[in-house]
Amino acid sequence: MLPLPSFALYAPTTLDDALALLRDHGPDTTLIAGGTDLLPNMKHGLLAPRHLVSLAQIPALRGVWVEGDVLRLGAMTNLETVAAHEVVLTRAAALAEAALSVGGPHHRRMGTLGGNLCLDTRCRYFNQTYFWREALGFCLKKDGTKCHVVEGGQRCVAAASNDTAAALLALEATIELVGPDGARSLPIRDFYTADGIANTTRAPQEIVVAVRVPLRPARASVYEKLRRRAAIDFPMISLAARLDAEEGRVNALEIAVSALAARPRMIRAASQAQGKSLAEVPRAAIAEAAFKECAPLPNIEGDPAWRKKLVRVLADRALRRLGLGPA
What we know:
Elements: E1 8-10, H1 15-25, E2 29-32, H2 38-43, E3 51-54, E4 64-67, E5 70-74, H3 79-84, H4 86-91, H5 93-100, H6 105-110, H7 113-117, H8 130-136, H9 163-170, E6 174-179, E7 182-187, E8 207-214, E9 219-226, E10 237-246, E11 249-258, E12 265-266, H10 283-293, H11 304-321
Parallel strand pairs: 1-3, 2-3
Antiparallel strand pairs: 4-5, 5-8, 6-7, 6-8, 9-10, 10-11, 11-12
Helix pairs in contact: 5-9, 10-11
């Protein structure tokens, strides 16, 4: 078993105290939520913070509320709660399915929604022991100057592997943050970047407080995931689709795909469904277009060509579950 490096642990009970600790201890400080990803990464020498600020004792960060036509989920709400909550299941099903797909029961009990949204990107050349990485000569993401995925690449292309990101992207979620300069909120589409090293726009001293999901009438959503096993594994592809329909016609269709690059992406071809009756939606054409739009890299396990083909399969399956296209 790999040992953890030494660190100091702080357990503030208010956001103000947490922000003060981040300010006082500087760049050697890292937030910890459930720790299901952070602690293994520390054991592998991928991170070595001297100070950990736990958010587990801050009641304001935990809970699920309906505020008018918005579903608000505290960032420290564990994934088990998100997956089982009645309003999430009935009004934001893609999020419930995504949360349920994370790891195993113990991961979902410890892991949190905010932690999953801020999950570090993963790469087959990065998520290894120090001994393994040293033998390879390290990489752009940690200690090295070379990308082993893209020859000559100057930007890290480690893959986003957080299941809930694709679901919340399809659901038009908003992220609430608080930092030294006060509170701010931004659409989740603006939260992620294409940089595998710094793949979110969250500042080092900011804390994700909550996620807001609009609740719309006649809205349905689903989540699909490709992985080697039916539990534990990170996604090789994650795909979420959201349908807004009225009187049998499509008002909006959104498809989000992740685990292909550092940033989740939207499928442009979903716009082909706009205004059509549910049965007339060209399901096969949209799935084929999704296949053409996506270009998986050899950054995580699974042959890229095979993963690309599975984009078509998952897209078709998601649209079929939403009742779109011919029977």
